[in-house]
């Protein structure tokens, strides 16, 4: 798996944003534990999106990103589960690749930490609130988690991917069941070979990638600060690209139903 130095070393920012949504407890427990999800967006939308935060948790720019996505392209009910039962990665693990990787392996392992069960609980929450179509994306590590969830047999998602995707390789996407949208920063590897590897799949829309070589890894999540005009411009473009992509796959699915 690929883990960029920027992912291991970059501290979260002190950005500010007044959250538009709120936390709620999921109706379904995961391995006997109550878990929370951040929910934002118009409650009458029938289009849902699962948003997986990065290892440092839900910070101000993460919230701004999710809140802005939720009101883009006609609106989505966005659900971001709090992914780590014992809380996000402490900043003390940053600066040492081995320590950071060990924390993720312990707290963010897809199978050991019942991550797909948590995602499905968030899907049930969206469906209970009227969503009939659902896509999934993530930030950093969260993008690889979103792709794994969208590779499960019988998975419910129409599209997957996300910005500044860490741990994402040709091997990661080999079983994906829906189209990919990958939006790399200057710190990630070339995404074109990854998309080329899934071209043989008969997806309803073509997978998509774009590079943002003027911004660093993490700018849409905990390491982002959209008071920086360059980061804001790139961030708003990601909001527009993701919103348009998720609206497109939802429109196709709705036409078939």
From TrEMBL:
GO molecular function: hydrolase activity
Coiled coil ranges: none
Segments forming domain Dienelactone hydrolase: 38-188
Pfam family, one: DLH
Gene3D superfamilies the record matches: alpha/beta hydrolase
Domain of life: Eukaryota
Record-linked PANTHER family: DIENELACTONE HYDROLASE DOMAIN-CONTAINING PROTEIN-RELATED, DIENELACTONE HYDROLASE FAMILY PROTEIN (AFU_ORTHOLOGUE AFUA_6G01940)
Name of the protein: Dienelactone hydrolase domain-containing protein
